[in-house]
Specification:
Cobalt-precorrin-4 Transmethylase, domain 1, five-stranded mixed sheet, five-stranded parallel sheet, 2 domains, 5 helices
Amino acid sequence: MKIVGVGCGPGMLTEAAIQTIQSAHLIIGSERALDLAWEYLPETAEVRTIENYKKLRTLPDNAVILSTGDPMISGLGYLGGEIVPGISSAQLGAAKAGVMLTNLFLITAHGRDYDSAITDCCEMISTNRKVCIIADPSFPINKLARMLSLINPDTQIIVCENLGYQDERIIYGTAGTPPAPNSDIFILFIIKAT
């Protein structure tokens, strides 16, 4: 099977991803992933919406599974097979916010243990690493900000919401005055003040 990253928003498919999708006979993806790739879905392909993520491993070898963003960043890359990467929110957010990807520590907190993500983030900031957190709507930014304030209240927090979409926003703040997202789709960059 092939796992294809469709990018974090419209227009973020790579040429390799487009070619893989266009040559597929069986395509499976979430509604959002299928929406991002709709213009490249072949009319002759069988297209299905994912109904049970646990059953994805049972798909035939010729299946192409669409994953939002990049499959290897909080995506479906864990399924194995051939991976065709997409433009991730971390890549696009870093470019939009002017954050260099070198020395960046990536944390996935999407539907996972927030306390561990906050602890890991604070540890990385204490060692002068930059951090990118892939968050979900319930991620407690204010709790993160309180913990970061103990290190340095001027630690920069950047919220990147709806990356690649028309209502994309980049909001800058600090641990002392944290930014507040207005969207369910966002990532955070945390950079220690110098």
